[in-house]
């Protein structure tokens, strides 16, 4: 019990096999209808729940239709439109700036390369990966959100602490064909079973191969703290 497989590659493949069985229909939970809406939804989702973002964007996307609409928006008004989102003032600034650049440098279209996306205000590699994968069907890496960060460490798939280093460490271990679903599977499992504070190890399909299992181990490898 609680014993990982001999190699990280074997561990990753076994974890994926089991999670595909547990969550066969998992996918992105943000609501959007085009690439610009996707970009804005992902920008808003940083340190905020997708459920909250979807509630806000239901009205936001009805009010603002194009990159020009956002770029020309009044800062205070846009901030007020998203004021239930964490860091709404900063995110309003980022959205306006990013959309101004989309207009000026990309003819009003959301760019389709990692370098161009990460040049936009408020867009890091995680956001860019999501937009590439779900907006352009381009998979260049693994989206490392808080669930992927936590579970990949708990399961012994990486010892890295920061998202970009975790992504770099996971890419040779996780089959490239699974990079996109890897994130969705980990998010689903993180929400359903393996939460941050009190994972339900008794109900976990991965318990017997998890080196952080509370049933067999004293330390949460995600945080380094004792259970």
Task: Give a quick summary of the entry.
The protein has 227 residues and is mostly helical. It is 52% helix and 2% strand. The protein has two domains: 8-26 and 143-220, Helix-hairpin-Helix base-excision DNA repair enzymes (C-terminal) (Endonuclease Iii, domain 2, Orthogonal Bundle); 35-135, Hypothetical protein, domain 2 (Endonuclease III, domain 1), CATH 1.10.340.
Fold and architecture overview:
Strands 1-2 form a two-stranded antiparallel sheet. The model has no long low-confidence stretch (mean pLDDT 97). It starts with 7 loop residues before the first helix and ends with a strand. It is built from eleven helices and two strands; from the N terminus they run αααααααααααββ. It has 227 residues and is mainly alpha-helical. The chain has helices at residues 8-22, 35-45, 50-63, 67-71, 75-81, 88-106, 114-118, 125-135, 146-154, 163-170, 179-192, and strands spanning 219-220, 225-226. It has two domains: 8-26 and 143-220, Orthogonal Bundle (Endonuclease Iii, domain 2); 35-135, Endonuclease III, domain 1 (Orthogonal Bundle), CATH 1.10.340. The chain is elongated and about 60 Å long. 52% of the residues lie in helices and 2% in strands. Helix 2 (35-45) crosses helix 3 (50-63), helix 5 (75-81) packs across helix 6 (88-106) and helix 9 crosses helix 11 (179-192).
Features:
mainly alpha; 2 domains; 11 helices; elongated; Endonuclease III, domain 1; Endonuclease Iii, domain 2; 227 residues
Strand content: under 5%
β-strand number = 2
CATH topology of the largest domain: Endonuclease III, domain 1
Q: Fraction of residues in helices?
A: 40-55%
Q: Residue ranges: pLDDT <50 for 5 or more in a row? A: none
* Shape descriptor: elongated
Q: Would you state the CATH class of the largest domain?
A: Mainly Alpha
Biggest sheet statistics: 2 strands, antiparallel
CATH architecture descriptor of the largest domain: Orthogonal Bundle
Tell me the strand order in the biggest sheet: 1-2
How many domains comprise the coordinates? 2
The fourth-level CATH homologous superfamily of the largest domain is Hypothetical protein, domain 2
Mean pLDDT rating = 97
Cα gyration radius (Å): 19 Å
Distance between the termini: 17 Å
Following the backbone from N to C, one meets helices and strands in this order, namely HHHHHHHHHHHEE
Figure out the total of helices. Answer: 11
Structural class: mainly alpha
């Amino acid at each position: 019990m609680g014993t990982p497989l001999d190699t990280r590659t074997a561990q990753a493949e076994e974890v994926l096999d089991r999670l595909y069985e547990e969550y066969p229909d998992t996918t992105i939970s943000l609501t959007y209808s085009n690439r610009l809406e996707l970009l804005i939804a992902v920008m808003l989702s940083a340190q905020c729940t997708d459920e909250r973002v979807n509630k806000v964007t239901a009205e936001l996307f009805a009010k603002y239709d194009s990159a020009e609409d956002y770029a020309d928006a009044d800062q205070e008004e846009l901030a007020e439109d998203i004021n239930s989102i964490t860091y709404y003032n900063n995110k309003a600034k980022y959205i306006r700036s990013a959309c101004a650049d989309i207009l000026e440098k990309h003819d009003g279209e959301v760019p389709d390369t990692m370098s161009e996306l990460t040049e936009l205000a408020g867009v890091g590699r995680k956001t860019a990966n999501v937009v590439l994968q779900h907006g352009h069907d381009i998979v260049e890496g693994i989206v490392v959100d808080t669930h992927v960060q936590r579970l990949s460490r708990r399961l012994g798939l990486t010892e890295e602490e920061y998202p970009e280093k975790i992504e770099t460490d996971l890419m040779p271990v996780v089959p490239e064909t699974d990079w996109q679903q890897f994130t969705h599977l980990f998010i689903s499992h993180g929400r359903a079973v393996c939460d941050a504070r009190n994972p339900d190890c008794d109900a976990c399909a991965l318990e017997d191969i998890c080196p952080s299992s509370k049933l067999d181990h004293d330390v949460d490898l995600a945080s380094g703290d004792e259970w």
